[in-house]
Amino acid sequence: MVLKKDFLWGGAIAANQAEGAYKEDGKGLSLVDILPAGEERREALFNPEVALSKEYSHYPSHEAIDFYHTYQEDIKHFAEMGFKVFRTSISWPRIFPKGDEAEPNEKGLEFYDQLFDECRKYGIEPLVTLNHFDTPLYLIEEYGGWRNRKLVGFYERYAKVVLDRYKDKVKYWLTFNEINMLLHIPFFGGGLIIKDDENANQVKYQAAHHQLVASSLATKAAKEINGENFMIGCMLAAAEIYPYTCHPDDMLKSVKENQKQYFFIDVQSRGEYPSYTNRLFRELNVKIEMEPSDEALLKAYPVDFISFSYYSSRLTSADPEVNKKSTSGNAFKSLKNPYLQASDWGWQIDPIGLRVTMNQLYDRYQKPLFIVENGLGAVDELTADGTVEDDYRIEYMREHLKQMIEAVDDGVDLIGYTSWGCIDLVSAGTGEMKKRYGFIYVDRDNEGNGTSERYKKKSFYWYKEVIETNGECL
């Protein structure tokens, strides 16, 4: 047996993509609550001033899949599959509606008490992200988002409240979801609205510094509240970036691009800015403003483990003309890899890339890894007998799990695996429901119509057997 006996199998969702109830029990608005669906969503993500000033016909986060009211039914389904771990997030504006209040919203805290109790009733370990793309909207409108140092203090207060409240219910925590996304979609990742006349890199990397300090402060609080009983992780949107050809210029370009994605995790894992940022910041004309205690704080409180999402590898060239052919299957641009197939949304499917990424991450940091997102977004058809014949999803996951196990056999220390969107939910990038990842079909469409009934897909029973056999039967 390659995997540990206590390997944590499970699934993952995010509060803003599943809960709905966007104003219920005192919850405030998050940045996601002003984002529409479909083609308009991409415009809103990259032009947030438009999203703030425009009225859209449908806001998918407002109802989502109504997990706020159906969590008991849904967790029962997860337990039937045999989940050992369930990754979710706490909605920051459900706890601090505006983000800068002195006291938390008790109704919000009570909801997560009930949610985590329900998990533990079935022996499911919660894995909780503190900030999964849902910075309170007020903090963006009033303070300018994470460009403002004040958000460090607001986040620290929020983190201390929930870490203390759930210290007996949650062991595994992630400080920020896909923290490197701040460089690619700055509104999503940092609540940033960057003016045309600003140095965008200065704004983004300064905001990144604030998040890195906040992450260390959360880790510090966790250790003071619950010592070694807490495991605190960072979270990277990971994908090895291959060179387009074996030309040395392409190889060097891929090395530099990989450094950019690892920058955040270098700091969170090693506790200091890597040496390559000296040249990077000089060339980008970036000057990080720090407080005197920042460097010591980062060094004293690195994370315990490295978690990451993996959906596809990427490809880059040093030739500007070649790079013009790059496309955005998701938030990241990539050249088309002629050796790979792609999903319905243009995400290139590369199971071996997962093994490559795992080896690179473990060799780089020598800290335990946790795969907290992986899966296939596809158009599913509900059959007349109430199921989905999603063999394509099973095939995708089977091939990735094979490579995951190979990486563990290579010597990678892996804590667990949580597939993304274990129940259908609203897509983060497109706001769609038709882009489905789950083992459980939710009867809602892109406009929010439907019964919200839950149906088990073919993959539900396949994943149940995978967990039962600890990955021996794929």
Compact overview of the structure:
This protein has 17 helices and 16 strands.
Q: Would you kindly provide a written description of the structure presented here, covering whatever features stand out?
A:
- The chain contains 17 helices and 16 strands.
- The longest helix is centred in the middle third of the chain and has 27 residues, at 200-226.
- By secondary structure, it is of the alpha/beta class.
- Helices cover 42% and strands 14% of the residues.
- The two termini are 13 Å apart.
- The protein has one domain (8-468): TIM Barrel (Alpha-Beta Barrel).
- The model has no long low-confidence stretch (mean pLDDT 95).
- The protein has helices spanning 15-18, 39-46, 48-53, 67-81, 92-95, 106-121, 137-143, 150-165, 186-190, 200-226, 248-270, 276-284, 294-300, 320-323, 351-365, 391-410, 458-468; strands spanning 8-12, 85-89, 125-129, 172-174, 231-238, 241-243, 305-310, 314-316, 327-328, 333-334, 341-342, 348-349, 369-373, 414-420, 440-442, 454-456.
- Helix 10 (200-226) packs across helix 13 (294-300) and helix 15 (351-365) packs parallel to helix 16 (391-410).
- An 8-stranded parallel beta barrel has the order 1-2-3-4-5-7-13-14, surrounded by 4 helices.
- The protein is globular and about 60 Å long.
- GO terms for molecular function: beta-glucosidase activity.
- The active site is at residue 373.
